[in-house]
Amino acid sequence: GQAELLSLFPGKIGRYLRNAYYFLTLKKCPLDCCFLLGMAVTHSEAEIGHRVYAGAYSNIGIATIGDDTMLSDHVYVLSGGRQHGTAEQDKSFQQQEGSYSRVHVGANSWLGVHAVIMADVGKNCVIGASSVVTHSIPDDSVAVGSPARVLKSTAPQTGASAADAR
């Protein structure tokens, strides 16, 4: 409730309040992060790296977010992909036990607007807008779609590699 209330404070004061609150309540959250209006972290086990930017109305569950990572607006980093059970036919989905797992997002990654992250994302990755990550994305990848597929690499090409590509 406190995090939800603090998520609604606008402007620079709101960003400072959210950062200070998460610094005090999360497993790890340095003071050099930027959390915009409506952004919330739902589990105190979350670990946030240095200089992380989380856009408006984003949500982070049980996750580890690497240094210098950017979450655009309305990005959801869930606590894995099995938060609700479906196996017991005589119970509603809400009554079934789910499974929570930590999701890792590597350093220097960029998650596009409306992305949903249910599995690990490597470092130096770009996840396209409205993509749904249901399986691990390797380091240095650009992935898009639902489910997200790797399209290309973000790794710089050396002279030999560029010549080979021709």
How would you portray this structure in words?
- With 166 residues, the chain is of the alpha/beta class.
- The chain contains three helices and 15 strands.
- The strands form three sheets. It has a seven-stranded mixed beta sheet with strand order 1-4-7-10-12-14-15.
- The longest helix is centred in the first third of the chain and has 15 residues, at 11-25.
- The protein is globular, with a radius of gyration of 17 Å.
- The chain starts with a helix and ends with a helix.
- The model has no long low-confidence stretch (mean pLDDT 89).
Brief description of this entry?
The chain has 166 residues and is an alpha/beta fold. 16% of the residues lie in helices and 22% in strands. It starts with a helix and ends with a helix.
Main beta sheet: strand number and arrangement? 7 strands, mixed
* Number of separate strands: 15
Number of helices: 3
How far apart, in Å, are the first and last alpha carbons?
56 Å
**What share of residues are in beta strands?**
15-25%
Mean pLDDT: 89
Structural class: alpha/beta
Shape: globular
**Rg:** 17 Å
Tell me roughly what share of residues is in helical segments: 10-25%
Poorly predicted runs of 5 or more residues: none
